[in-house]
Amino acid sequence: MHFYELHEGDDDVFADLLLVREEEMDPEEFFDIVQAIRRRVVDSFEQGTLVQGIADELELHHGFIAVTDDRLTAAVNVSRDEDDNFLADLDAPEEGTDYATILADLRADDPRLN
Prior knowledge:
The chain is 25% helix and 22% strand. By secondary structure, it is α+β, with helices and mostly antiparallel strands. It is extended, with a radius of gyration of 18 Å.
């Protein structure tokens, strides 16, 4: 198995997506294919992020498998604290619930926060 990664982001907001493929693809060829797909779908992808839209095309036409949460068999939370180690319930999130992370760099001395 060969692993590939797509990054999408501007400044501090980003998304990453891993892809797997049985046959190795030269990194430059992978880049060229991703660029061609990006140009074609940048204004029309139906998924939440551009990398998801590109990954859909890579799966459909180029033999890749996107490693996404819906394909997980198991997830384990690991911590130094024994009580924080557990097998996550993959069925727990309700359908339709989607999360995104936003990083906010707030200054304590900002007068707008007082």
